[in-house]
Design goal:
With 102 residues, this protein is of the alpha/beta class. The chain is built from four helices and four strands; from the N terminus they run E-H-E-H-E-H-E-H. The longest helix has 16 residues.
Length: 102
């Protein structure tokens, strides 16, 4: 699943809805979020990502973050969320061959 733009107070509800739709319509338990096109993410956005991770873990799944830009990576590090999420420098090859998630 690729996210673009900013994840903030104004855009987070749309992302949250998209996660809810994905989890409701699909048996998906493994999600890789390509963050290479995310320019900014505030605490509201991080909370949406955490909530999605929690819902996936309740199903026995997980969510990983891939290719965050330096500003987003810094937020992950400062908040300690880089130890909660698996963070890849690039999108993992195995997720490229999987069925598209978004």
């Amino acid at each position: 699943m690729t996210i673009t733009g900013e994840i903030d107070l104004y855009t987070a509800p749309g992302l949250q809805s998209e996660f809810a739709r994905l989890l409701q319509e699909s048996p998906t338990t493994y999600v890789v979020l390509d963050l290479s096109k995310v320019e900014f993410c505030d605490s509201t956005g991080m909370n949406v990502l955490l909530a999605a991770l929690k819902r996936l873990r309740e199903r026995g799944g997980t969510m990983e973050l891939a290719a965050p830009r330096p500003a987003v990576r810094k937020i992950l590090q400062v908040t300690g969320l880089d130890s909660v999420f698996t963070v890849h420098d690039a999108v993992p090859d195995e997720s490229l061959s999987a069925e598209p998630q978004g």
